[in-house]
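User: Hey, quick favor. My workstation is busy. Could you predict this chain's structure for me?
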Amino acid sequence: MPAPLLTSDAPLPLQDAPGQPAAPLRVLLVEDSALIRERLLDLVASCEGFAVTAEVESEPQALAALAQQRFDAVVVDLQLREGTGFGVLRALLHAPQRPLTMVLTNTSTRPVRERCLALGAHHFFDKSNEFDRVAQALDALRATLHRGRHP
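Assistant: No problem, here it is.
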């Protein structure tokens, strides 16, 4: 696959210029299945105020995308074309401003869930029956950030 498409615990949004409309919150998709990425693109598009600004299928591509730009939310699978989602989670632990981090995987055992949460994931969703919870988490993030901007 080509290079990424560039299109604290609480995530912080990019700052908007005074008097300007709010910029969309930036989402990184880390998923090796093209079909699942397409579903995630549609899901994020259905969430007001969000834009997928990079989509990648491997750990090295995810790390490159994280070095190139800041994201407000990251959706990561654990089994990737190269590397793993665990490596992405480890990198996000050390990010100066951690994005909302969601693991979306078919590997949804209790030990895997606990490991992901220990590595800083905010949410852990099973692809087969919790796919739509990604949208709920994004909507909750937007609502939280909106309240923070407008007390």
